[in-house]
Design a protein that fits this description.
Layout (H helix, E strand, L loop, with lengths): L2 E6 L6 H14 L2 E7 L2 E2 L12 H26 L6 E5 L3 E2 L2 H9 L4 E5 L6 H14 L4 E4 L11 E5 L4 H13 L4 E7 L10 H9 L3 E7 L6 H12 L3 E5 L2 E4 L2 E4 L1 H9 L4 E4 L1
Helix pairs in contact: 3-4, 7-8
Length: 273
């Protein structure tokens, strides 16, 4: 059954490159790529003279909607001859956090795809990634900014911990891809003695997946760095990990390993929580 991947385009910076990477990945995985153009409207703020006049707010609505639809029309024109199923949607114009609005849209997709944070838009991509990870209920795939050549995911590397997030990530990845081989990697001094990945490997093997397990010491490096180095050394097509964070009041704050992977990844990484 064809899948549907949802990609936001929160700004015009590097727009063509982000779209090209997502199209290439969708093509190889027989997926329909839906591009989401947000219509972000700043929340009105009070001043000593009160809120903005209704006429000014109405004018702002109209301007932002026109700009979003103009971007969407340009994208449709550009994509008309590509050999990938696609659609372009414009977000509903409303006073709301555009990243959270995207997360709500992603609940009705198989996979949320976001660009790797970097450059002048790093904070924007961070916001969209965090919102999708914490609020969509769907796996989130991050595509590298540089050195990325799309390949069908056949060799899958799983950074395993005996947590709900890791279990969710493994099964989400299998639902999205059809890997020929999965390597379960447990990072730590001698690996996790209580759960060295044997149980999840046995479960995957029961479903006909070729699986190997590796316990590797961190050797003074972070978990994220250890996983990325191992992925490069083994030629993995994608890395799969549980996504972690902490709630501070209503703000979602990424865990250290999640943030480090997000900023340093050089291959597609699928996060779930």
């Amino acid at each position: 059954m064809p899948k549907e991947f949802l990609l936001p385009l929160p700004s015009a910076t590097d727009e063509d490159a982000v779209v090209d990477r997502a199209l290439a990945f969708a093509r190889l995985h027989d997926a329909r790529l839906v591009i989401y153009v947000p219509a972000a409207i700043p929340t009105p703020t009070a001043s000593p003279w009160g809120l903005s006049a209704d006429t000014l707010i109405a004018e702002l609505y109209g301007t932002i909607e026109r700009e979003a639809h103009a971007r969407a029309d340009v994208l449709r024109q550009r994509l008309r001859d590509v050999d990938v199923a696609w659609d372009v949607r414009v977000g509903r114009a409303c006073f709301a956090d555009p990243a959270l609005t995207f997360a709500h849209e992603a609940r009705c997709a198989d996979l949320a795809v976001v660009g790797q944070p970097g450059g002048e838009d790093a904070s924007i991509w961070h916001a969209y990634f965090s919102a999708a990870l914490s609020g969509s209920g769907r796996p989130v795939l991050v595509l590298p900014r540089r050195g990325f050549e799309a390949a069908r995911v056949q060799r899958l590397l799983v950074g395993w911990k005996s947590t709900r997030e890791s279990a969710r990530a493994v099964h989400d990845a299998l639902a999205q891809f059809a890997p020929t081989h999965v390597e379960i990697v447990v990072v730590g001094e001698g690996g996790d003695e209580e759960d060295p990945g044997v149980a999840i490997a046995s479960h995957l093997a029961h479903h006909g997946v070729a699986v190997t397990t590796t316990a590797t010491p961190a050797a003074g490096k972070s978990v994220a760095t250890t996983l990325l180095l191992h992925a490069a050394a083994t030629g993995a097509d994608a890395l799969v990990v549980g996504g972690y964070g902490h709630s501070r009041l209503r703000e979602w704050v990424l865990g250290g390993a999640t943030r480090e992977l997000l900023e340093q990844l050089e291959l597609p990484v699928l996060f779930s929580r």
